[in-house]
């Protein structure tokens, strides 16, 4: 029986990273697959994150469609947009990466701590990734959402069977996602092109 990871169009583990950076189209396809994963959880807890991720993917895709080869990689896309008044795609990448990082930290904590509740894993993740960037009202929304996440066993079952295969694929996917989000974080921290965000 195919697992979620067998059926997605692009896995983070297969996103190409070359001398010029992270391949834009592949990265966006993998991010879309992550967003679609939330629907498997049968929970409205992640609807805010899912909507945010989808909105930011749209901003990046529109920029890519408008500029093509100049935005072949995520880094080139940001460089290409630097001199413009409205840097919608750059801001979209920043927030997309924050949403991806939130998901990564939550699922990684759950993967590493099988005895912890999934809600605890995502509560820890929220504190580490998004909380500092949210208003008091948004923090309240997330607090309620995180408490409503499904149990870890339900999450794993929704990703397919057998569980040992799902866990192996999840580990590979998480490692790749973690490396990509770290690379983007570093780009924002060290690049003059990403200053001001």
From TrEMBL:
Q: Using the record's annotation, list all stretches that form the Glycolipid transfer protein domain.
A: 22-161
Which source organism? Dacryopinax primogenitus (strain DJM 731) (Brown rot fungus)
Q: Which UniProt keywords are present, listed alphabetically? A: Transport
Gene3D superfamilies, alphabetically? Glycolipid transfer protein
Pfam name, any one? GLTP
What is this protein's name?
Het-c2 protein
- A Gene Ontology cellular-component term: membrane
Q: Which GO terms describe its molecular function?
A: ceramide 1-phosphate binding; ceramide 1-phosphate transfer activity
UniProt keyword Transport present: yes
